[in-house]
Specification:
about 70% helix; Glycerol uptake facilitator protein; transport; mainly alpha
Length: about 150
């Protein structure tokens, strides 16, 4: 139904590229955020001890890094993800290489893996704004909100 982009950053990028209408982009982003909130609620409901022990999965800037470091890491990580999605799903490439649509998830998954390796030590990897928002809303502690804009 949504094309599989469960990340508002990807949805926004597709909107800017005029591959989605404004109405559809807003609808997708609202649904992505609601899904993340529901998902965080389910995790909290089933694994209360682990959930609270791990800070609710909320993204925070690690000690030793500034908010500027965290913001830079998240901007670069999100750029890498969105750029990879655009590269892997480019219509011009699809016309030239008929196997690309089948293989598109591989470079996207690899990009997500590499971004996680790079940014988990800094911010816990918040390249999906919906996931970060859902975790912060359900956890609802001050430290979860302090770094939310990063």
């Amino acid at each position: 139904m949504t094309g599989g982009h469960i990340n508002p950053a990807v949805t926004f990028g597709l909107f800017l590229a005029r591959k989605l209408s404004l109405t559809r982009a807003i609808f997708y982003i609202i649904m992505q955020c609601l899904g993340a909130i529901c998902g965080a609620g389910v995790v909290k409901g089933f694994q209360q001890g682990l959930y609270m022990g791990n800070g609710g999965g909320a993204n925070v800037v690690a000690s030793g890094y500034t908010k500027g470091d965290g913001l830079g890491a998240e901007i670069i990580g999100t750029f890498v993800l969105v750029y990879t999605v655009f590269s892997a799903t480019d219509a011009k490439r699809n016309a030239r290489d008929s196997h690309v649509p089948i293989l598109a998830p591989l470079p996207i998954g690899f990009a997500v893996f590499l971004v996680h390796l790079a940014t988990i030590p800094i911010t816990g990897t918040g390249i999906n704004p919906a996931r970060s928002l859902g975790a912060a809303i359900i956890y609802n502690r001050d430290h979860a909100w302090n770094d939310q804009l990063v």
